[in-house]
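Thread: Modeling a multi-component assembly for a lab meeting

Hi all, long-time lurker, first post. My supervisor asked me to bring a structural picture of a complex we are working on to next week's group meeting, and I have zero experience with this. I have the sequence lines for every component (247 residues in total). Could someone generate the structure of the whole assembly? Inputs are pasted exactly as I received them:
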Amino acid sequence: MEYRYIAGSSFGKDSMASILTAIRYKEPLDAVLYCEVMFDEDVSGEVPEHRDFIYKAAIPWVQSHRIPVIVVKPERTYLDVFYQKIRKSSNPLLIGKYNGFPLAGRCCIQSRCKAKALEQYAKKHFPKEAVKYIGLSSDEPLRLQKLAPGQISLLDKYGIGKEEAMEMSKAAGLLSPVYEFARRSGCWFCPNASERELVHFRKHHPELWNRLLELGKEDTATKRFNRSYTVFELEERLSKADIRKGF
Ligand code: SF4
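Re: Modeling a multi-component assembly
Sure thing. I ran the full set together rather than chain by chain. Output:
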């Protein structure tokens, strides 16, 4: 079967509300396309609570509406990108070092893993005139202006803002538990994660947090994990925040 109307989804509140909107207003929807970024070959890049929600609740629910869900896994993992050696740089001191942690605001995991995998899949499997529903809410004018030809926001079409998207997902029992401790769904190693998210993550998933601490010992071009701190500075800061907030 040829898919012409595809909803791109991370199964966060906006993309979930976009699928609910398609169903509510009987918009054509042939398939849902989801990309699971991987940390390494075995470990998902999704925050574990969100991954459970995706595979145990969201995907089965979509499939129960007879809408196929396509899961794409990028060829390159986070560790592949992290351990890529720098070959060219205006700064000779960086040559030969590992790429290291992705930069906040210019995440190479998004461009080199996720976007690339989705683009390759679409090129191979979808017709040129395929329409892609993007989970952008009506109160994101700047991002809406950047939609490419063939991309549509159903939330904008029906005037659904962020809050309503959250309510719609909640009312349908399809709001990811990630929103209990984060403002958005994203990878667990995301440089844009807030302190609240990181405190939760460090406490509830120490085995994954420790993998980041191990990576911090490598000879990398970027020493910082996010805009302000290395993983070791974060470890100190978060352990204090953990005690302060009584998590
Ligand atoms: S969620 Fe964060 S780490 Fe993951 S692709 Fe997006 S910006 Fe990069």
